[in-house]
Amino acid sequence: MRIEHGDAIVLEGIVRGVFSCQRGEMGGYIDADHFESEPFDAALIALSPLWKKADFHEIEDFLWKWEHALRKEDEDNLTAKEYINELDSLVNNLLNR
User: Fold this and answer.
1) Dihedral sign (CA 13, 14, 15, 17)
2) What's this model's pTM, rounded to 2 decimal places?
3) Which end of the chain is more exposed for a tag (fewer CB within 10 A), N or C?
4) pLDDT grade for 1, boundaries at 50, 70 and 90
């Protein structure tokens, strides 16, 4: 699945919101340029500090689904927008618990 730079900017915003940090922090990994080529890293970085707030399967199911979709290992016709919306929703739900 192709991630456009505009989508990567949105991913950066989601991750920055979790950590309340600036662009390029955490060793340069919170950066749209990085997420454009490695969009799954945004989910891993954003969800890792929220893991204990989630149901056992909540994060695992999300990661399983999107890891395969982003690596083109399944053909469910999922889009980058769906990935971003699901990640944003999951992050917001977990932050508000």
Assistant:
1) positive
2) 0.90
3) C
4) confident
